[in-house]
Amino acid sequence: MDDRCILVTGASSDIGTELLNSIGDNYSLIYAHYRNDSENFCVLKERFGERLFPLKGDFLDREDPVHLLDQIKIKGIFPDHFVHLPSDKMTGSRFHKRDPEDFRHSMDISFMSAATLLNGLIGPMVKKRYGRVVLMLSSCILGNPPAYQSPYVTSKYALFGLMKALSAEYAAKGITVNGVSPDMMDTKFHNGTLKKEVVLKENAEINPLGRNITIGDVIPVISYLLSDAAEAVTGQNIAVTGGVR
Questions:
Q1: 129: exposed, middle or buried (C-beta count within 10 Å: 0-12, 13-18, 19+)?
Q2: Cα 120 from Cα 138, distance rounded (Å)
Q3: Where are the chain's structural domains?
Q4: pLDDT at 38 over 80
Q5: Quick one: 206 exposed, middle or buried, by C-beta within 10 A (0-12, 13-18, 19+)?
Q6: Strand spans (E) along the chain
Q7: N or C: the chain end with fewer CB closer than 10 Å?
Q8: SS (HEC) of 127-169
Q9: Is pLDDT above 80 for 198?
Q10: pLDDT tops 60 at residue 1
Q11: What's the CATH architecture for 5-240?
Q12: Predicted TM-score of the model (pTM)
Protein backbone atom coordinates (compact mmCIF):
# COMPACT_ATOMS: atom_id res chain seq x y z
CA MET A 1 0.00 0.00 0.00
CA ASP A 2 1.36 3.42 -0.95
CA ASP A 3 0.40 6.88 0.29
CA ARG A 4 -2.22 7.52 -2.37
CA CYS A 5 -5.88 8.43 -2.08
CA ILE A 6 -8.74 7.51 -4.39
CA LEU A 7 -12.32 8.70 -4.84
CA VAL A 8 -14.72 6.25 -6.44
CA THR A 9 -18.19 7.56 -7.23
CA GLY A 10 -20.78 4.83 -7.57
CA ALA A 11 -18.77 2.61 -5.23
CA SER A 12 -21.89 0.70 -4.17
CA SER A 13 -22.53 -0.50 -7.73
CA ASP A 14 -21.51 -3.98 -8.84
CA ILE A 15 -18.46 -2.69 -10.67
CA GLY A 16 -17.61 -0.17 -7.93
CA THR A 17 -17.48 -2.77 -5.17
CA GLU A 18 -15.50 -5.22 -7.30
CA LEU A 19 -13.07 -2.48 -8.32
CA LEU A 20 -12.36 -1.52 -4.72
CA ASN A 21 -12.02 -5.17 -3.72
CA SER A 22 -9.39 -5.45 -6.46
CA ILE A 23 -7.38 -2.26 -5.99
CA GLY A 24 -8.33 -0.91 -2.55
CA ASP A 25 -5.21 -2.27 -0.89
CA ASN A 26 -3.16 0.16 -3.01
CA TYR A 27 -4.55 3.16 -1.15
CA SER A 28 -4.10 4.61 2.31
CA LEU A 29 -7.46 6.44 2.04
CA ILE A 30 -10.53 5.51 0.00
CA TYR A 31 -13.37 7.98 -0.52
CA ALA A 32 -16.32 5.81 -1.51
CA HIS A 33 -19.44 7.56 -2.77
CA TYR A 34 -22.71 5.67 -2.57
CA ARG A 35 -26.38 6.40 -3.01
CA ASN A 36 -27.77 3.27 -1.33
CA ASP A 37 -26.04 1.44 1.50
CA SER A 38 -26.08 -1.97 -0.22
CA GLU A 39 -24.94 -5.27 1.26
CA ASN A 40 -21.86 -5.17 -0.97
CA PHE A 41 -21.01 -1.71 0.29
CA CYS A 42 -21.32 -2.86 3.89
CA VAL A 43 -18.79 -5.59 3.12
CA LEU A 44 -16.41 -2.96 1.76
CA LYS A 45 -16.72 -0.88 4.94
CA GLU A 46 -16.01 -3.93 7.04
CA ARG A 47 -13.00 -4.92 4.96
CA PHE A 48 -11.26 -1.55 4.77
CA GLY A 49 -12.31 -0.12 8.12
CA GLU A 50 -11.07 3.39 8.83
CA ARG A 51 -9.29 3.56 5.47
CA LEU A 52 -12.69 3.79 3.79
CA PHE A 53 -14.45 7.15 4.14
CA PRO A 54 -18.08 6.84 2.94
CA LEU A 55 -19.70 9.75 1.13
CA LYS A 56 -23.46 9.49 0.65
CA GLY A 57 -25.09 11.47 -2.13
CA ASP A 58 -27.79 11.44 -4.80
CA PHE A 59 -26.47 13.14 -7.92
CA LEU A 60 -29.99 14.06 -9.04
CA ASP A 61 -29.48 16.84 -6.50
CA ARG A 62 -26.86 19.17 -8.00
CA GLU A 63 -25.84 20.28 -4.51
CA ASP A 64 -24.76 16.79 -3.46
CA PRO A 65 -21.47 16.76 -5.43
CA VAL A 66 -20.69 20.13 -3.80
CA HIS A 67 -21.40 18.61 -0.38
CA LEU A 68 -19.05 15.71 -1.21
CA LEU A 69 -16.28 18.17 -2.03
CA ASP A 70 -16.95 20.00 1.24
CA GLN A 71 -16.49 16.74 3.19
CA ILE A 72 -13.22 16.06 1.39
CA LYS A 73 -12.01 19.58 2.20
CA ILE A 74 -12.88 19.07 5.87
CA LYS A 75 -11.00 15.76 5.85
CA GLY A 76 -8.05 17.70 4.42
CA ILE A 77 -6.77 14.98 2.06
CA PHE A 78 -7.55 15.34 -1.63
CA PRO A 79 -7.65 12.26 -3.87
CA ASP A 80 -5.02 11.95 -6.58
CA HIS A 81 -7.01 9.15 -8.25
CA PHE A 82 -10.65 9.54 -9.31
CA VAL A 83 -12.94 6.92 -10.88
CA HIS A 84 -16.42 8.08 -11.91
CA LEU A 85 -19.00 5.34 -12.45
CA PRO A 86 -22.56 6.74 -11.97
CA SER A 87 -25.00 6.62 -14.85
CA ASP A 88 -28.73 6.91 -15.29
CA LYS A 89 -30.68 3.78 -16.19
CA MET A 90 -31.24 2.93 -19.85
CA THR A 91 -34.97 3.19 -20.55
CA GLY A 92 -36.28 2.67 -24.07
CA SER A 93 -38.55 5.33 -25.52
CA ARG A 94 -38.70 7.40 -28.69
CA PHE A 95 -37.25 10.90 -28.47
CA HIS A 96 -40.53 12.68 -29.26
CA LYS A 97 -42.20 10.86 -26.36
CA ARG A 98 -39.51 11.83 -23.86
CA ASP A 99 -39.96 14.35 -21.09
CA PRO A 100 -37.16 16.97 -21.10
CA GLU A 101 -36.57 15.99 -17.47
CA ASP A 102 -35.23 12.65 -18.74
CA PHE A 103 -32.26 14.52 -20.20
CA ARG A 104 -31.70 16.56 -17.06
CA HIS A 105 -31.66 13.39 -14.96
CA SER A 106 -29.11 11.66 -17.20
CA MET A 107 -26.90 14.73 -17.45
CA ASP A 108 -26.99 15.39 -13.70
CA ILE A 109 -26.19 11.81 -12.69
CA SER A 110 -23.41 11.15 -15.18
CA PHE A 111 -22.03 14.45 -16.49
CA MET A 112 -22.77 17.33 -14.13
CA SER A 113 -21.63 15.36 -11.09
CA ALA A 114 -18.31 14.57 -12.79
CA ALA A 115 -17.82 18.16 -13.94
CA THR A 116 -18.58 19.54 -10.47
CA LEU A 117 -16.32 17.10 -8.66
CA LEU A 118 -13.43 17.50 -11.10
CA ASN A 119 -13.71 21.28 -10.81
CA GLY A 120 -12.77 20.87 -7.15
CA LEU A 121 -10.30 17.99 -7.52
CA ILE A 122 -8.13 19.03 -10.46
CA GLY A 123 -6.57 22.00 -8.65
CA PRO A 124 -4.92 19.91 -5.91
CA MET A 125 -3.75 17.45 -8.58
CA VAL A 126 -2.14 20.33 -10.47
CA LYS A 127 -0.27 21.36 -7.32
CA LYS A 128 1.02 17.79 -6.95
CA ARG A 129 1.68 17.61 -10.69
CA TYR A 130 0.10 14.19 -10.54
CA GLY A 131 -3.36 12.72 -11.00
CA ARG A 132 -5.27 9.85 -12.57
CA VAL A 133 -8.88 10.25 -13.73
CA VAL A 134 -10.96 7.45 -15.25
CA LEU A 135 -14.52 8.08 -16.45
CA MET A 136 -16.96 5.27 -17.19
CA LEU A 137 -18.26 5.86 -20.69
CA SER A 138 -20.12 3.32 -22.82
CA SER A 139 -19.95 1.39 -26.07
CA CYS A 140 -22.95 3.49 -27.13
CA ILE A 141 -20.47 6.18 -28.21
CA LEU A 142 -18.63 3.72 -30.48
CA GLY A 143 -20.19 3.76 -33.93
CA ASN A 144 -23.96 3.84 -34.21
CA PRO A 145 -25.68 4.14 -30.81
CA PRO A 146 -28.66 2.05 -29.75
CA ALA A 147 -32.06 3.44 -30.65
CA TYR A 148 -34.53 4.82 -28.08
CA GLN A 149 -31.78 5.74 -25.58
CA SER A 150 -31.32 9.44 -26.38
CA PRO A 151 -30.84 10.77 -22.80
CA TYR A 152 -28.32 8.06 -21.91
CA VAL A 153 -26.40 8.43 -25.19
CA THR A 154 -26.36 12.22 -24.91
CA SER A 155 -24.97 12.16 -21.35
CA LYS A 156 -22.22 9.71 -22.33
CA TYR A 157 -21.16 11.88 -25.27
CA ALA A 158 -21.03 14.88 -22.93
CA LEU A 159 -18.81 12.92 -20.53
CA PHE A 160 -16.64 11.85 -23.46
CA GLY A 161 -16.24 15.50 -24.45
CA LEU A 162 -15.23 16.42 -20.90
CA MET A 163 -12.64 13.65 -20.89
CA LYS A 164 -11.10 14.86 -24.18
CA ALA A 165 -11.08 18.51 -23.07
CA LEU A 166 -9.47 17.87 -19.68
CA SER A 167 -6.89 15.46 -21.08
CA ALA A 168 -5.69 18.13 -23.50
CA GLU A 169 -5.68 20.85 -20.85
CA TYR A 170 -3.83 18.98 -18.09
CA ALA A 171 -1.49 16.55 -19.85
CA ALA A 172 1.47 18.84 -19.15
CA LYS A 173 0.57 18.88 -15.44
CA GLY A 174 1.11 15.15 -14.94
CA ILE A 175 -2.63 14.41 -14.93
CA THR A 176 -4.09 11.70 -17.16
CA VAL A 177 -7.80 11.64 -18.03
CA ASN A 178 -9.19 8.59 -19.81
CA GLY A 179 -12.44 6.78 -20.44
CA VAL A 180 -13.49 3.14 -20.50
CA SER A 181 -16.33 2.01 -22.75
CA PRO A 182 -17.62 -1.49 -22.02
CA ASP A 183 -20.28 -3.25 -24.00
CA MET A 184 -23.32 -4.63 -22.19
CA MET A 185 -22.63 -6.30 -18.83
CA ASP A 186 -25.00 -8.39 -16.74
CA THR A 187 -25.11 -6.21 -13.62
CA LYS A 188 -27.75 -4.59 -11.41
CA PHE A 189 -27.54 -1.58 -13.74
CA HIS A 190 -29.87 -3.40 -16.14
CA ASN A 191 -32.39 -4.43 -13.49
CA GLY A 192 -35.76 -3.15 -14.59
CA THR A 193 -34.82 -3.18 -18.28
CA LEU A 194 -37.72 -4.41 -20.39
CA LYS A 195 -37.12 -8.06 -21.34
CA LYS A 196 -33.70 -7.94 -19.66
CA GLU A 197 -32.91 -11.64 -20.09
CA VAL A 198 -33.85 -11.56 -23.78
CA VAL A 199 -31.73 -8.47 -24.40
CA LEU A 200 -28.73 -9.99 -22.61
CA LYS A 201 -29.07 -13.24 -24.53
CA GLU A 202 -29.32 -11.51 -27.89
CA ASN A 203 -26.37 -9.29 -27.09
CA ALA A 204 -24.23 -12.28 -26.11
CA GLU A 205 -25.09 -14.06 -29.36
CA ILE A 206 -23.79 -11.22 -31.54
CA ASN A 207 -20.57 -10.75 -29.55
CA PRO A 208 -17.53 -12.51 -31.10
CA LEU A 209 -16.68 -13.81 -27.62
CA GLY A 210 -20.02 -15.60 -27.50
CA ARG A 211 -20.85 -13.90 -24.22
CA ASN A 212 -21.48 -10.53 -22.65
CA ILE A 213 -18.68 -8.42 -21.19
CA THR A 214 -18.01 -9.06 -17.51
CA ILE A 215 -16.85 -6.83 -14.69
CA GLY A 216 -13.68 -8.91 -14.70
CA ASP A 217 -12.99 -7.74 -18.26
CA VAL A 218 -13.26 -4.08 -17.26
CA ILE A 219 -11.46 -3.84 -13.93
CA PRO A 220 -7.96 -4.64 -15.29
CA VAL A 221 -8.35 -1.78 -17.79
CA ILE A 222 -9.30 0.69 -15.07
CA SER A 223 -6.46 -0.60 -12.89
CA TYR A 224 -3.98 -0.05 -15.69
CA LEU A 225 -5.18 3.49 -16.37
CA LEU A 226 -4.72 4.31 -12.67
CA SER A 227 -1.21 2.85 -12.61
CA ASP A 228 2.16 4.50 -13.17
CA ALA A 229 2.53 2.31 -16.25
CA ALA A 230 -0.15 4.47 -17.94
CA GLU A 231 1.74 7.75 -17.44
CA ALA A 232 1.81 8.39 -21.20
CA VAL A 233 -1.82 7.36 -21.81
CA THR A 234 -4.32 10.22 -21.73
CA GLY A 235 -7.32 11.33 -23.72
CA GLN A 236 -8.12 7.75 -24.69
CA ASN A 237 -11.45 5.95 -24.71
CA ILE A 238 -10.62 2.28 -24.18
CA ALA A 239 -13.25 -0.01 -25.71
CA VAL A 240 -13.96 -3.26 -23.85
CA THR A 241 -16.37 -4.90 -26.23
CA GLY A 242 -15.01 -8.27 -27.32
CA GLY A 243 -14.83 -6.88 -30.86
CA VAL A 244 -18.54 -6.25 -31.33
CA ARG A 245 -17.87 -2.54 -31.90
A1: exposed
A2: 25
A3: 5-240
A4: no
A5: exposed
A6: 5-9, 29-34, 52-56, 81-84, 131-136, 175-182, 237-240
A7: N
A8: HHCCEEEEEECCHHHCCCCCCCCHHHHHHHHHHHHHHHHHHHH
A9: no
A10: no
A11: 3-Layer(aba) Sandwich (3.40)
A12: 0.93
